[in-house]
Design goal:
By secondary structure, the protein is an alpha/beta fold. The chain has 11 helices and 11 strands. It has a domain of about 230 residues: 2-enoyl-CoA Hydratase, Chain A, domain 1 (Alpha-Beta Complex). The relative contact order is 0.17.
């Protein structure tokens, strides 16, 4: 009997059948689909909003301009009208003429939609150079742009502040003062403080080395000699003569009667009513009255005109952690200013000590 034996080995091992893969069914619930739709709508909405915002910002740029850091702000009138009456603000002590006031003038000069200007003055004056510089550019703006310029005096428009108002020229009924305005103070002052007696009490002497004794013409460490006083008086008289010339340029009544101006130009201050009686101003009224006059002179329709004003850019003093360092630098600058020989069209004897604003906001 024959016997058959099967050889065992991997090649002859039976292969078990593979298990079938069950079909996969993806079920989208209603909430999942809703989330996708809402997500799509959200992104689409954000995109549309950004496009609209960019377009709106571009469209309104000429109405609320912020070029060069100066912010144009709506004041009154018809908010989206094209024609403008621009308010240029002169506020506080005038140390230099090329600050915020000059930038306002430049902005107005380059804006073709500005048809009239109101200069809002709330200043006791300042240096003769700063006051004269601003007056020059205001008068130049009026002449070159050929727009009416009206002045509105605030709480104080004295000395250099009054000097600026003369930029109106011969234009009639153009200088307004509020009922409580202090104005006038037509004159020049060169402050000098003699502390030599105080220093002597502490055995402190000035031992400066100078190229000529007159280099210390206004040194606080010694009294002014008679010879030096004559030199300084001649300097003051020349600046005073220019002040009176400027006043005559803005007040024709004094060109006809210069002796009347001599009687008023004593440094004396006046109330608004006194100033009007003397012919130093035209009308007693508020800034709204000055705007009305500007509209009238420019022949503008009040309902088709907007009034704008300008604000300076934010300063370092508005940042808490930078304010202290900036304030220290400002104090040092004021001390240096105090010891600098300068002449002022100013209604005070302490010029550098009354203005602590940041440099960006100074006239």
């Amino acid at each position: 009997m024959s016997q058959i034996t099967a050889a065992a080995g991997p090649a002859n091992s039976p292969v078990p059948p593979s298990s079938p893969i069950p079909p996969q069914i993806n079920i989208h619930t209603g909430s999942s689909l809703l989330q996708r739709v809402l997500c799509w709508l959200g992104w689409t909405g954000c995109l549309i909003f950004l496009v609209l915002f960019a377009g709106l910002s571009y469209g309104l740029r000429e109405y609320f301009d912020t070029t060069e850091g100066i912010r144009e702000r709506y004041h009154s009138g018809t908010k989206y009208a094209r024609d403008k009456v621009a308010i240029i603000t002169v506020d506080g002590l005038i140390l230099e003429g090329n600050g915020f006031v000059k930038r306002q003038i430049d902005r107005v000069r380059d804006d073709e939609h500005v048809k009239a200007v109101v200069v809002r003055v709330n200043s006791p004056g300042g240096t003769i150079t700063g006051s004269d510089y601003i007056h020059h550019h205001l008068a130049k703006l009026r002449q070159e742009k050929k727009v009416p310029l009206v002045v509105s005096m605030g709480g104080v428009a004295a000395s250099g502040g009054y000097y600026l108002a003369m930029a109106v020229g011969d234009q009639p009924k153009s200088i307004y003062a509020e009922p409580t305005t202090t104005t006038g103070s037509i004159g020049v002052i060169v402050p000098h403080y003699d502390v030599s007696g105080l220093l002597a009490n502490f055995n402190v002497k000035d031992d400066s080395i100078v190229s000529h004794p007159r280099k210390q013409l206004l040194a606080m460490t010694r009294p002014v000699s008679d010879e030096d006083r004559k030199i300084l008086q001649a300097y003051v008289n020349e600046a005073f003569g220019r002040f009176k010339d400027i006043v005559q340029g803005g007040r024709p009544v004094f060109r006809k009667a210069p002796q009347k101006l001599d009687e008023l130009a004593t440094g004396e201050i006046f109330t608004a009513q006194q100033a009007k009686n003397h012919g130093l101003i035209d009308e007693i009224g508020f800034i709204e009255d000055a705007v009305e006059r500007a509209l009238e002179l420019a022949k503008l329709d009040k309902d088709q005109t907007r009034v704008v004003e300008y604000k300076p850019p934010p300063s370092l003093l508005e940042v808490p952690w930078l304010g202290e360092a900036s304030a220290e630098r400002s104090t040092l600058a004021l001390l240096l200013e105090l010891n600098t020989p300068r002449a002022y069209y100013l209604a005070t004897t302490l010029p550098p000590l009354i203005d602590h604003r940041p440099a960006a906001a100074r006239p």
